[in-house]
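Our preliminary data section would be incomplete without showing what the modeling component actually yields. Below, a chain of 1018 amino acids is followed by its predicted structure, encoded as tokens that our downstream tools consume directly.
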Amino acid sequence: MPTLESALRHRVDGEVRFDAGSRAAYSTDASNFRQTPIGVVVPRTPEAAAEAVAVAREYDAPVLSRGGGTSLAGQCTNTAVVIDWSKYCGRLESVDPDARTCVVQPGIVLDELNRQLAPTGLRFGPEPATHANCTLGGMIGNNSCGATAQAYGKVVDNIARLEVLLYDGTRFWCGPTSDEEYAAIERQGDLRATLYRHLRTLRDTHADEIRDRFPDIPRRVSGYNLDSLLPEHGFDVAGLLVGSESTLVTVLRAELRLVPVVNEQTLVVLGFPDIDTAADAVPAILPYEPIALEGVDSRLIRDERIKRLNPKARAQLPDGNAYLMVQFGGDTVEESDEHAHRMLDGLHESEHDATVAFLDDPSHEAELWQVREAGLGATAHIPGRPDTFEGWEDSAVPPERLGDYLRRLRHLYDEFGYLSDTGPSLYGHFGQGCVHTRIPFDLYSADGVAAYRRFMERAADLVAEFGGSFSGEHGDGQSRGELLPRMFGERLVAAFEELKGAFDPLNRMNPGKVVAPYRLDENLRLGADWAPYTPKDLHFRFPDDGGSFAEAANRCVGVGKCRQLTSEGSVMCPSYQVTREEEHSTRGRARLLFEMLDGHGDSAIQDGWRSQAVHDALDLCLACKGCKSDCPADVDMATYKAEFLSHHYEGRWWRRPRAHLSMGWLPLAAQAVGRSRLGPAVNALTHAPGLSRAAVAAAGVENREIPLFAGETLQQWFARREPYGDGSRGSVLLWPDTFTNHFHPHVGRAAVALLEHAGWRVELPIEPLCCGLTWISTGQLGVAERVLGRTVRRLAPHVRDGGLVVTLEPSCSAVFRSDAGDLFPGDRDVRRLRERTVTLAELLTEHSPGYAPPQVPERSARALAQVHCHQHAVLGWEADAELLHRAGVDAERLDSGCCGLAGNFGFEPGHLDVSEACAERVLLPRLREAAPETVVLADGFSCRTQIAEFDSGGHEAVHLAELLAVGLPDGGAHGSAYGVAPGARPAPPGRRAQALALAGSGAAVAGAALGAARLLRR
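Predicted structure:
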């Protein structure tokens, strides 16, 4: 008999993965729990998923459906066949604008659905904070809500019908069922008829108790929706199944009810002295019918300040230590403003008067909503504080009792030693009485885990006392499943078990969740027995993680922001955006690194640093550092990748790809070429027909155009020129990075002209120096430390005297401002270098008082900016935007994410397709659409190289220094549109040079053959 894996491969149209890497990546969700799956199936269609369930049934294997994998209660982790719907099953199958419905597959992402619905003027109402990456299937499984549930209700209130599959193969569409429809189903006499009879009997038996024990609150999400079966709710079987967390059925398709898009919105932020007082004001606000009513406390704001999240939005908050964010909607701004003013007038005349910030600018509103939506990530891994965890992150009570509940909850925090001046923070959907928080449980020791259990039991009793729900939108899963008797009583929990038995008598649908649950202190991702391997011989010191690689790998909280498909203001995660693979997301890679350390002794990955599974997952990491700034938990995968590669190849350098050697040691090769002035000759050799392919083959890189060396390096040019200007502002050191110095010295020449025009005296090191970037990115960290250490010693006198170091290449700037400190956290000269390193724009806007940049001519006044990933992650682009504005340039920053070249990544074997796909996602299409006269700005050498090689509509990218040099007094005298001398850019070798190179190489080969023949004759 074939194995389960081989049967799935033979019969399922999709990807079947039983490898160690896939099982490790899916071993946990965003919860405290961990269970390694049997295997993973990624179906191409709902029918393929149905076939996967059929195969699993034949092998008696449990099944778990998974969407975005952001569940917080453990319902997305199990020892089962995991069906991941998110890669292929994301179609919007049909839309009926008149009926305001649509049919979707489970894997469609909410934001993507609403983008596709936009032309109809309709949208799906509920919108969780993870709307950029959560799937509709996951939302249905959890009965999700979000801030907009204030106006539109929970998911259960927005479902028309579901197409579902039982583990036994029974498949049907379901929804509200009239008596006539029920009779027709019963007449069929099939398994569905038997099921429906069972459901009606269950309903009739428990109807009174359902009405009595189910909390009558807006956010009752705990338990199964038995109330949907009541006659007053139309015997709605679809409603029953919403929120069942993959424990009853597999959802194949969903028909959704849609709502009109609100044309205009007004946001009012109310400031209060504390969060309890803010909660007390909620009942007074609800009669004014806001479309969203959110609460945040000062602790959340402080956490975001510490993590430098949303600074512009935080500056717009009114005075106070707690805030209510109240949003109104209307067809016009005037209408939504009127609703807001009416509320403010009412509050002013009551005891709930507050300080006010009134916003009807959509951009400012969006910024402030980010403050609230960043809550989960912002409260995780705060420097210098104990780790916080989910578990009791989702309780809900009647809104009119919210203030008293928060007071009692904080007393409970205090009793268990969890309360301090810094936390836990309290925030959430206050208009519906739902509270989010992360609590500093000690999940590392036996006593801590025991205290966690006692707290959960006490908190459950507290919510039950208030007539609330343990879950207000995240579901029960394993966190709250065993507590349900405290909320519903034993009889209703027995009814839940009976319902489970009717749908899944073999207990194969996500077993151990909601019904007959695992204990809340079982299957913990950490726990008292967690003992990960703790490597001591690290290169990076991980100063923010106590020097522990295990703590760094444990940073990921699973929120899944790295899985968003757009790059609106962010870069993370380019490899996921083009592959849609969990293993190629920041989260997936973090999970593999966590499993590699084998803290429980049962990991799918058992070979540590030598793991090929971890290597393969990290291989498509572009090391863009986008996650360093975009991940709310501050995961820095580029650093983790470099550390891993260093150990993976330690003691066996011969296993390294040749590309690591050719690209990693590029600075030394470039120095040799530049010193001997062989740039033109090397260019001729590497671009001659036949020889170019031989060159890339020898280097072990992709068959791409090899960058051209300059005939004269920046250092050589600088050594022969006379200074210009009076240097009245003092001296600055211009850093001659490898790429500017040897490949694009025209950028450095333009920068020198600008700096001298601004009144600075420019210094340039005369010896060959390097920041070590290429060795870092290829994981050759021992060499990188030596190279960088030498550079730090050379620059130490300058920075000790308070001198500034101006950098032109963003990736090199990021080494000085970030990587160097992680490699040498205790070195004072490294700290000084970090503090004194500035970009060109930072120097001219922040360190040159009164400086007015040259005005760029009108022909160059419109620009599209491709911001380098490392600049986005480490340096910021605000100074560049300000400088461009002062120079008269209308610059649009592209929301294009990573260009796809990312230093050495795009040149490494097997990466070309991903590299080009990254560029084609947004960047290249936008450039092809742009007018010919539009300037393309790209400070990164890799970005300019990528744009030059692929189809960019004829545009050539330029550095900020080149563009601004156009406006210098002699800018036009150079005869170039960008203020650089003709021929300054390295030109491709002509035919004659290529022919000479071919002849020379042919003669060399012939000579070598002749020599070998003579040697053999001896």
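Confidence is low (pLDDT under 50) at residues 972-983, 996-1018. The chain has 45 helices and 25 strands. Preliminary results of this kind motivate Aim 1 of the renewal.
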